[in-house]
Amino acid sequence: MEETKTSLPRTVFGMMVNPAGALKGALSGTRWYFSVAVSAVAFGLFFLQTGLDLYKTGQKGWAFVLLSCGAGMAYGLTVIPLLAVVMWVVLKAAKSGSGLMEAVSAFCLSYSGALVYGILGLLFSLILGWKTSVAFGVTGVLWATGPLMFTIRELTGGKTSLSVPLSTAVSAVVLITWTFFGNL
Q1: Secondary structure in 3-state letters for 115-157
Q2: Can you tell me whether residue 102 is helix, strand or coil?
Q3: d(CA 17, CA 138)
Q4: pLDDT grade, residue 29 (50/70/90)?
């Protein structure tokens, strides 16, 4: 039988609008490093918008803007997979049969919406001069809560009671750590 591959843009947009279908297709044909790259670029753009907003208001210089982008990419590359590992351990205690790399890939792909919002926010920031980190960046992270809920529910074999509080906790951790970064 021939294995079908899902295109990368289709995976990203599919995860935004139909996490169920996208997750099933993506985990069978998407390499884990693509999933981690999605979260790295998404958070790089989110933090870049934060740096640009602070630069536009005169609170920070260009060095902070560049540091913001790098810090965001590092955040998406390390913190999001680390949160996925923590959630995987919690899910293992709840009798999840998923593998570690499957959980990391699924969690990182959940931030596909944040990637799309990051691209749009950067365009609005650069072209129209808007301050976009809250309007686009935070919205993208909040958009990821739905796919995270679905991901956790899938990894636990349909246990909705775990998916809502765990995805809410992950989203809260992400937004709280971003707030600390913006106040540096």
Answers
A1: HHHHHHHHHHHHHHCCCCHHHHHHHHHHHCHHHHHHHHHHHCC
A2: helix
A3: 18
A4: low
